[in-house]
Design goal:
alpha/beta; Rossmann fold; 39% helix
């Protein structure tokens, strides 16, 4: 009886290519684990392709809720952005798929793991780092790193899940060429968006989105609803030049409609609550958090330690933010939080004299402040010199 390998893949192309390759090169029975991360592909068709390609078994695992709850929402709470404006989306799917793949391997008594990436990319590294952390006893098979596997039907490399679409290739490889409108495949152009403002209110509980327009929703339903709202209002497009970490740069497009609304609202609510020093420190950790996600270092003690710090910062990030959407623009229309750090009693700008103004004088006169402070003695010395 042949040994088993669990192959993780979310596309029909991957199954069609990888299953026969693994079977012929390694002589192993392939158990196809098909991850549903909201990629929009007909999964019944993927299952059929897996069996047609020679898989002994095909398993469909709905990972959308886990992806959002356990992986993407933590990046929202952390405030993590790749290249300053790119929300984590592609990289963050690797650990959730790898985690389920290991569970499937244990259940099937498999001795090896393989990923279904069909071209050389950072995803191979992310999967293998996850395998090492979660199942160092299992053998790792990576046939697509031995010879490139590409699709001749599409000049773009695209990755899609319930949270985002990322793509590169085609005209994007020429930095001097504008992005074609046809290259965007999810979001609407601003010129095609409605001529009226649409308002949406997003509620949060300890930093995680929990409701839309006062309706409590599970993670999948919430993100799907916000995707619809953002897409029709042309919200969620971004174009960046990525530093791929090996001295190469790549021009990429990202479409993250719901994610743009959620992160905008979360950032606004958080700024309304956190004190200055915590906010400054958290911003520094956010950069590191994004780096760990991109580099495939999710299952590490450092990420767990950062999560502990972030969880503490999010204890009071409960409330709601109202957003106004108009032709690609997202504007803040209101905030509500009972535990906000701000107090209306400590606003001296328009309410006359308060103890805050009185305290300011003493604060300014502290001699150890970095800014130079002019004292009577300094003035006397200056006059003597003059």
């Amino acid at each position: 009886m042949a040994e088993k390998v669990v192959l993780a893949c979310s596309s029909g192309l991957g199954m069609s290519i990888m299953v026969p390759r693994i079977s012929s090169q390694y002589g192993m029975d392939v158990v196809a684990m098909i991850a549903d991360v909201g990629q929009g592909e007909d999964l019944d068709e993927v299952v059929a392709k897996a069996y047609d390609a020679g898989a002994k078994k095909a398993i469909v695992c709905d990972l959308r809720e886990e992806l959002l709850r356990d992986f993407i929402y933590p990046t929202v709470r952390a405030g993590a952005f790749h290249e300053r404006s790119f929300l984590p989306g592609t990289a963050i799917t690797c650990p959730v798929i790898a985690r389920q793949q290991v569970k499937s391997a244990r259940a099937e008594a498999a001795v090896a793991l393989a990923d279904g990436c069909t071209h050389k990319s950072m995803d191979h590294l992310r999967f293998e780092l996850a395998y090492q952390a979660l199942a160092p006893d299992l053998t790792v098979i990576a046939p697509s790193t031995e010879s490139a596997v590409e699709s001749c039907k599409n000049i773009y490399f695209r990755d899609r899940n319930i949270w985002h679409i990322a793509q590169h290739g085609g005209e994007l490889e020429d930095a001097g060429q504008p992005t074609l409108e046809s290259t965007w495949i999810w979001t609407r152009s601003a010129k095609d968006a409605p001529d009226a403002v649409e308002t949406v209110e997003i509620g949060f509980e300890k930093g995680s989105p929990s409701s839309v327009n006062h309706q409590q929703l599970d993670a999948v339903s919430l993100v799907e609803l916000l995707n619809e709202i953002a897409i029709r209002n042309a919200v969620g497009r971004v174009e960046v030049v990525e530093n791929c970490g090996i001295g190469l740069h790549r021009r990429s497009l990202g479409e993250t409609p719901a994610g743009t609304l959620i992160t905008t609202a979360h950032r606004e609510l958080e700024s309304f609550i956190l004190d200055r020093e915590v906010a400054r420190c958290k911003h520094q950790f956010a950069l590191k958090y994004a780096e760990l996600v991109y580099d495939g270092l999710w299952f590490t003690p450092l990420r767990e330690a950062l999560d502990s710090f972030i969880a503490k910062t999010q204890e009071n990030v409960t409330g709601s933010v109202k957003l106004s959407l108009y032709k690609g623009n997202v504007m803040i229309a209101g905030r509500a939080c009972e535990l906000a750090f701000e107090s209306s009693k400590l606003q001296p700008d328009t309410r006359g004299e308060t103890h805050v103004q009185t305290c300011a004088t003493g604060f300014i006169d502290i001699p150890d402040r970095p800014a130079p402070i002019k004292t009577d003695l300094q003035q006397t010395k200056k006059e003597a010199i003059d």
